[in-house]
């Protein structure tokens, strides 16, 4: 095993867990499309080497979903819709400006 420093300034995790309607899950809110939207926006801004957008499994706050988190900064966004993506990008912009 090799251990090294994280190659990214931050990871954006978009919960895309899908319980197929059995109970509330982030996929109810089109989280997969949101992940693609954020991924494309990060690429267009030239941030791909510094910001990694990944889908994740359940983050534990399903009732507040769709959930997006930014680590290691520990920022949480809940009840996210497509219209909220500029706020997430603005948070990333601030993080990158301070790195
Ligand atoms: S299903 Fe997304 S936080 Fe649980």
What does the model show?
This protein has 99 residues and is of the alpha+beta class. The chain has a single domain (15-97), classed as Glutaredoxin. 27% of the residues lie in helices and 19% in strands. The protein contains two helices and four strands; from the N terminus they run E-H-E-E-E-H. It has helices at residues 31-44, 85-97, and strands at 10-15, 51-56, 68-71, 75-77. Helix 1 (31-44) links the parallel strand 1 and strand 2 (51-56). The longest helix is centred in the middle third of the chain and has 14 residues, at 31-44. It is globular and about 40 Å long. It starts with 9 loop residues before the first strand and ends with a helix. The mean pLDDT is 96.
Brief overview:
The chain has helices at residues 31-44, 85-97; strands at 10-15, 51-56, 68-71, 75-77. With 99 residues, the protein is an alpha+beta fold.
List the helices and strands and how they pair.
Blueprint: E1 10-15, H1 31-44, E2 51-56, E3 68-71, E4 75-77, H2 85-97
The structure holds FE2/S2 (inorganic) cluster (FES).
Give the number of DSSP strands: 4
SS strand fraction: 15-25%
User: What is the tally of helical segments?
Assistant: 2
User: Any idea of the CATH topology?
Assistant: Glutaredoxin
User: Helical amount among residues, as a percent range?
Assistant: 25-40%
The end-to-end distance, rounded to whole angstroms, is: 28 Å
List the bound ligands. FE2/S2 (inorganic) cluster
CATH architecture: 3-Layer(aba) Sandwich
What is the residue-mean pLDDT, rounded to a whole number?
96
Overall radius of gyration: 14 Å
List the secondary-structure elements in sequence, H or E. Answer: EHEEEH
User: Biggest β-sheet, characterized?
Assistant: 4 strands, mixed
**Oligomeric status:** single chain
Arrangement of strands in the largest sheet: 2-1-3-4
Within CATH, the superfamily carries the name: Glutaredoxin
Whole-number tally of structural domains: 1
């Amino acid at each position: 095993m090799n251990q090294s420093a994280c190659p990214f300034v931050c990871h954006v995790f978009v919960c895309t867990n899908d319980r197929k309607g059995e109970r509330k899950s982030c996929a109810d809110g089109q989280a997969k499309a949101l992940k693609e939207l954020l991924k494309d926006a990060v690429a267009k801004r030239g941030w791909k080497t510094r910001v990694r957008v990944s889908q994740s499994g359940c983050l534990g706050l399903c009732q507040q979903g769709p959930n997006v988190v930014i680590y290691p900064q520990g920022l949480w966004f809940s009840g996210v819709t497509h219209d909220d993506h500029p706020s997430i990008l603005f948070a990333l912009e601030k993080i990158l400006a301070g790195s």
